[in-house]
Amino acid sequence: MTAGGDSEEKMALNRHVLFLDFDGVLHRLGAVRTRKGITSDSPSIRLFEFAPILIERLAPYSSVEIVLSTSWVPHLGYQRAKQALPVALRERVVGATFHSKYFDASTWGAKPRGAQVLRYVHTHRLVRWLAIDDETCGFGEHWSHIVGCDERLGLGDVKAQTLLCTRLAQQFG
Q1: pTM passes above 0.85
Q2: Which of 18, 25, 96, 142 has a Cα-to-Cα distance from 122 of 20 to 30 A?
Q3: How many whole angstroms separate alpha carbon 3 and alpha carbon 64?
């Protein structure tokens, strides 16, 4: 291996990556695409209502990058999904688990979320990573890397917030 390869491997090992889902995490339940744009499944729910909680919890971890692991990316495209986030989160976004050029892009939505995230983890040789999601299938034995949310509560759930603080400290502290 060349010196450049060693440097790239060290960079991968030093990356701190948070895989972020939107629906059931940053807001309760899901969202739908309408002619007027993206709206909540329920008129009483404001999209990204819990983003301030995540922003606050991430504040001590300035090196954490965000990779989008949300169905918004295949449906809207990476840039539109990224732009939907509040600025404080958007500035941390460096990529997504989905890319339209993947050989399996047409069946991406049928893959368990864990499989989607783990493909990125293995491809990029990540050691320090965390996923926040309401879909926890496919993560195998990687439970210490997951903050599972109840889709009806998202990050508004105190238990999920407590687990998030614990996992952030374990992975990035």
Answers
A1: yes
A2: 25
A3: 26
